[in-house]
């Protein structure tokens, strides 16, 4: 049964997302209603077999320009799809199912694995994950607040948190 429209949560066009089941406490995501499928920045993508089932191992770096908090993830492969990028380029990508937390709501999403190093966001949340749950306000950002990321600064030769 579909959720009634009045239960939708207002979200900004960019939000902080949690992926606790794979060990990613926070990742900045773009909520993109123009994209059908969600995507996460993944690299060293290696398919393998476990107990007769296709799995994939990959690494995630949740912070732009940082190796901090990098995690190695192993998931069953849900699908392999041809994905057309916004520039028109078609690429075969592994699809995994991930549970994410967005604005206090849990969402099960099909997520493609893609190197997003050149993109402004480590994760893209597509309309399939957003439908019947969220209304995206294109003029707002971070309605759920900012991620509590530790800030390291050099001060007279010692690091501070």
TrEMBL record:
It holds the Pfam family Zn_protease. It comes from the Bacteria. InterPro entries: Asp_endopeptidase (IPR008503), Peptidase_aspartic_dom_sf (IPR021109). Residues 11-143 form the Retropepsin-like aspartic endopeptidase domain. PANTHER family: ATP-DEPENDENT ZINC PROTEASE DOMAIN-CONTAINING PROTEIN-RELATED (PTHR38037:SF1), ZN_PROTEASE DOMAIN-CONTAINING PROTEIN (PTHR38037). This is Retropepsin-like aspartic endopeptidase domain-containing protein. It comes from Pseudolysinimonas yzui.
């Amino acid at each position: 049964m579909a959720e009634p429209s009045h239960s939708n949560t207002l979200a900004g066009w960019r939000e902080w997302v949690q992926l606790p089941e794979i060990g990613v406490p926070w990742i900045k995501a773009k909520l993109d209603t123009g994209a059908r499928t969600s995507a996460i920045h993944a690299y060293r993508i290696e398919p393998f077999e476990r107990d007769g089932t296709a799995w994939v191992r990959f690494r995630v770096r949740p912070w732009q320009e940082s190796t901090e908090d990098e995690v190695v993830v192993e998931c069953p492969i849900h699908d392999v799809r041809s994905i057309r990028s916004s520039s028109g380029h078609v690429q075969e990508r592994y699809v995994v199912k991930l549970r994410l937390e967005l604005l206090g709501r849990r969402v099960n999403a099909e997520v493609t694995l893609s190197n997003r190093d050149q993109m402004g966001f480590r994760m893209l949340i597509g309309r399939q994950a957003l439908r019947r749950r969220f209304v995206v306000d294109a003029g707002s950002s971070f309605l759920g607040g900012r991620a509590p990321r530790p800030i390291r600064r050099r001060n007279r030769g010692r690091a501070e948190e």
